[in-house]
Amino acid sequence: MTNSHPYQIQLIQDRYGLKVAARLSDVTDELPHDILERLRVARMQAVGQRKVVKTRTAANIAASGGAVALTYGGDDTSWWDRIASVIPLIALIVGLVAINVIQNDNRAKELAEVDAALLTDDLPPAAYTDPGFAQFLKSSRDQNQ
């Protein structure tokens, strides 16, 4: 039994306690009132002194529409647990901000290249109003690289 899981040991002890309690309850009809009261007080003390095994399990399951969230049941979570649960959210926000900054920088570089090509090229003014002009600049820039 030394290799058993603590929960299995606890389960075996609980079953044994239930069997003993059932056996004692069967013979209580024949006992005098004062002994029954002493037994009741002793039972209350024993229940009060019983060790409670604290486990961290997902106690609440909250379902909303098609989403399910597992939450811890008590308010006894430590500050470290709360901080550790916020770290992925912070990493996500930092990643999204970094992606936005990089995309804005790339877009600004593209526009600067188009503006530089417009200012350095000798084209007639009618070429700037042509709808395919931006595509022409992009294709010519790609060919140059």
Descriptive report:
With 145 residues, the chain is mainly α. It has a domain at 79-145. It has five helices and two strands, in the order H-H-E-E-H-H-H. It has helices at residues 6-27, 33-49, 79-120, 125-128, 133-144; strands at 58-64, 67-72. It has a two-stranded antiparallel ribbon. Strand 1 (58-64) and strand 2 (67-72) form a beta hairpin. The longest helix has 42 residues, at 79-120. The two termini are 74 Å apart. The relative contact order is 0.04. The model has no long low-confidence stretch (mean pLDDT 78).
Topology:
Blueprint: H1 6-27, H2 33-49, E1 58-64, E2 67-72, H3 79-120, H4 125-128, H5 133-144
Antiparallel strand pairs: 1-2
What structural category do the secondary elements indicate?
mainly alpha
Largest sheet: 2 strands, antiparallel
Strand order of the largest sheet: 1-2
- The helix-strand sequence is HHEEHHH
In short:
By secondary structure, the chain is mostly helical.
